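Final report, closing paragraph on structural work. Over the funding period we assembled a curated collection of sequence-structure pairs, and we close with a single example.
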Amino acid sequence: TDMVADFGEHTYDENKVCTVCRTQYVSKGLEYTMSANGPHWVVSGIGSCTDTVIYIPAAYNGIPVKEIGAHAFHENTTITGVVLPDSITTINAHAFFCCTNLASINLPEGLTTIGEGAFNSVSIASIVIPASVTTIPDLYPFGFGLSYSEFVYSDLVLDYSGDNLRVAYKISNH
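Its predicted structure, as stored:
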């Protein structure tokens, strides 16, 4: 718990929303790097964070968090879930590579880029790629390590434009 000015400590409900100030819990101790592409933060590593479910903040020190960096959580086997804010637009290459216990993540509407192998060798059983995604460098951003027994695609839309592939679909495990 943290102190809330004039109210006392944060107390979180089962959805990790503070019952005092109604703000979403965010994981403490993550590493951040300022992006070279504009005034926004990139989550660049786990740092000293010990959460098993990682809650990425929408802003850090008053500046938006828009990216998950390349290899940010690479081979972290303690992570079981990730909650991304709507501010995230890019998940870079191998961001969650070999996070073998990662079983859940939300991909926010507004996400535009999923990097190569971003989710290779994870335990995600179902994921929805939002229609806002315009860049996936290959057809295997999720690699070959998923726990799928069968792939089911729905609402599949593929649109090639130069080297970019626009994809919108739902994959579920049946």
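The first strand starts at residue 3 and ends at 4. Residues 144-154 have pLDDT under 50 and may be disordered. We thank the funder for supporting this effort.
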